[in-house]
Design goal:
By secondary structure, the chain is mainly alpha-helical. The chain is 67% helix and 0% strand. It has helices at residues 6-14, 19-31, 33-49, 61-69, 74-78. The longest helix is centred in the middle third of the chain and has 17 residues, at 33-49. The chain starts with 5 loop residues before the first helix and ends with a helix.
Length: 79
Amino acid sequence: MSCPEPIVLSRFADGDLAASERRDVDRHLRECEDCRDAVDGDEAVARALGGKAVCPDPECLALFIDDALGPPRVDVVAA
């Protein structure tokens, strides 16, 4: 398995992945020290902030925001 996207690792740290995706990432983390370090960092930030991990990688910020907001609501925009 190639390394998951940073947003996936951040969601893993938050516990926001579906069970099957969480198993895949967990399996990958057993083999990949770089990704383990990234998840450890996300978890440390979450503990320090008293909440969910933040996306530390600027390249994934838009994905992180889109994921947090959910799908666009056309009815709200049109009103």
